[in-house]
Amino acid sequence: MGLRVAYGGIQAVRGITFHVAEGEMVALIGANGAGKTSTLKAISRILDTAGGTVRFCDREITRLAPHRLVREGIALVPEGRGVFPRLSVAENLAMGAFVRSDTAEIDRDLDQVFGYFPRLKERAEQLAGTLSGGEQQMLAIGRALMSRPRLLLLDEPSMGLAPIMVQKIFEVIQAVARQGMTILLVEQNARLALEVSQRAYVMESGEITLAGEASQLLNDPRVREAYLGES
Amino acid sequence: MKWMNSRSAAGIALVAVALVALPFVAAMGGQAWVRIVDFAILYVFLALGLNIVVGLAGLLDLGYVAFYAVGAYVYALLASPHFGLHLPFWAIVPMGAATACVFGVLLGTPTLKLRGDYLAIVTLGFGEIIRIFLNNLNAPVNITNGAQGITLIDPVAIGGFKFSGTTQILGISLSGPQKYYFLLVALAIVVILINLRLQHSRIGRAWQAIREDEVAAKAIGINTRNIKLLAFAMGASFGGVAGGIFSAMQGFVSPESFSLVESISILSMVVLGGMGHIPGVILGAVLLTVLPELLRYGVGPVQQALFGKVLVDPESLRMLIFGLALVLVMRWRPAGLWPSSERRRELAEKT
For residue B345, which residues of chain A lie inside 8 Å, CB to CB? Predict the structure, then answer.
């Protein structure tokens, strides 16, 4: 039985099954309301599941408390970024390492995040709430990386951003992936998601309707028509 | 440490001298003024407790006075002729704090998923429930003595040293309120230190994260349920301790001391002074305790001098001026009179 998520009586995710292999970047694409974000929220335990199981590294995590997931190695970049607006950029990043105590390693990871996003280093003392949308997205990704996850969950990283910013963010996502990070990317911008991922699943009305290699899906007429704006 | 340099040391010495001199200066205006100063410190206590819940964890609590009431009644019941119990101060105060703490968790548990206005409404109801219970728990078994309240509560005594009545120490005559003043100052310093430590601790940072964004706080591995309950519990304990001291100082408690207005005025102290900023909260508490009293004493005589008679009842004019002051502060200093540097920066950057 697949994963199900329901809001009251309404099923948002109707029993889906998918997997992400280690070191892989997998995209979950689909229209608004298809159930992508609900799926991600169920995996990260922000929402309770209505049925089905989620397994991570051979361990069932379906009933784990949300705050325990970070220790297990799962980091979520929430939809709409979710930075701490009244904390500075540096404080936000430090909060990302909340569950860690290995100071020297935390400093190294901080340097790495600043390497990915030099902009964050320039603005380290600025309050996160005063950053632009793109910079906040950078910060949200940086903060997630600070927990040194084994699986990175990205929820709509391109949402509401200028094209130039989207490009910058996705360059970093690809760079992170090249370092061997396992990534599950939820994205409405199907073309972009398919271009950077290895595999993808297409969701529609709470179900997975298509799955396969990202490059194949890019050329699939059904995907091209429904999600890439071609006919 | 940065406060060890000579200028800060001089500053601390100056504050210390001022704190010691204050009750004697206040006594020149009569013992009533010493009592007002005592109450100002008691409110500092309460405001700092509420600041944990509202300022740090961002949970709007309109029923904070309930914990104050719980602490006050625990003391009143265990140190008065009502039950014939006369336990010592140092034994009851931790009990009051613990009981208030339990009530804090009791309020926190069902409200874990509520935020903002919804949380405010539930906490408001909770405050009223406690007050109504205190009002009615006199039948069938008389526990709280109902609306009459509990009288003849033991004053604070530590060892053989009594905090009521006048004593001579080293040739200096100290009145009851003056002795309480020094006890309160000592306790307030402890409370301030605890607050400072908390704010910059892991727990303090977790509170701030929850205040800023609860989903993100969960996502970075904060156990939001426990951390929120901890905020309620700690805030409540401070309220409980303050309640115990209030009971002992007054010698009398009744449910009407713990009305909604009291909750609102404690919240006003936190908001007016500067939410989440300890010096601001202290300033807010002192101002909102002392200023109304100044008005109370000032309004009558001023009218007498200007018009030859008292036109407006001092009490109602006091509330009027008080309300106006609140509106003005919220209009021109929305972050509070003495906000933290972050809040100041945030407002400056936005404009």
Answer: 127
Taking CB atoms and an 8 Å cutoff, what residues of chain A touch B221? 67-71, 98-99, 147
User: What tens digit of pLDDT does each residue of B214-273 get?
Assistant: 989 998 999 999 999 999 999 999 999 999 999 999 889 999 999 888 898 899 889 888
Domains of chain B: 2-350 (1.10.3470)
- Closest-CA distance of chain B to residue A146, Å: 9
Which two structure tokens, joined as six digits, stand for A5?
């998520």
Q: Alpha helices of chain B — where are they, by DSSP H?
A: 6-27, 31-51, 65-78, 89-108, 116-136, 176-199, 202-212, 214-219, 224-250, 260-273, 278-307, 314-332, 341-350
Of A177, A172, A179, the residue nearest A214 (C-alpha): A177
* Interface confidence (ipTM) of the complex: 0.86
pTM recorded for the entire structure: 0.86
User: In chain A, what are the domains?
Assistant: 21-48+64-226 (3.40.50.300)
Q: Do B208 and A84 touch (CB under 8 A)?
A: yes
